[in-house]
Design brief:
By secondary structure, the chain is an alpha/beta fold. About 40% of the residues lie in helices and about 20% in strands. The chain has a single domain, classed as 3-Layer(aba) Sandwich (Rossmann fold). It contains six helices and six strands; from the N terminus they run βαβαβαβαβαβα.
Length: about 160
């Protein structure tokens, strides 16, 4: 299903999103995907974690889409720190790793959603919309392999 034809209802006003990834090409790609949702507004981009925090605060982002590789191997501890630094911003963790275990750790560490980059074209808009509404999101492929522990769209 194309991202612009999401099965999730959009929020009542545009969700303000900051995209953080070390690679400019990936930031641009994520931005293009997110902006297929007319109810989503990418207000900033960041190439590092400190820049992501600064951008999210300054631009009052409701959602931060962050590549887990920016956390430099710190995993859940870094996500918890990020969550504490941005208490009003929901975190969508994106990664190349297709791992239910990593999804569990990301959600336990403070992320509200987990999206594998290989499926971002079909899942990212749904994930951003879900977290903008205060819900959690895990893609169906990861959730199916993990069973009830990571239900898609689980709150």
């Amino acid at each position: 299903m194309p991202a612009s034809m999401s099965r999730f209802a959009p929020p009542s006003r545009p969700a303000r999103v900051v995209v953080a990834d070390a690679h400019q090409l990936m930031r641009s790609t994520l931005r293009l995907l997110i902006e297929t949702g007319e109810d989503l507004q990418v207000v900033g981009e960041a190439g590092s974690l400190p820049e992501a925090v600064q951008q999210a605060r300054r631009l009052r982002a409701g959602v931060l889409v962050v590549d887990l590789s920016l956390l430099a191997g710190s995993g859940p501890a870094a996500l918890a720190h990020l969550r504490d630094a941005l208490p009003r911003t929901r975190i969508v963790a994106v990664t190349m790793e297709d791992s239910p275990g990593l999804a569990r750790h990301a959600l336990a560490g403070g992320a509200s959603a987990f999206v594998v980059k290989d499926r971002a074209d079909s899942e990212l808009v749904d994930a951003v919309r879900s977290v903008a509404r205060g819900e959690r999101y895990v893609g169906p492929a990861i959730a199916a392999r993990e069973g009830a522990g990571l239900a898609p769209g689980a709150r």
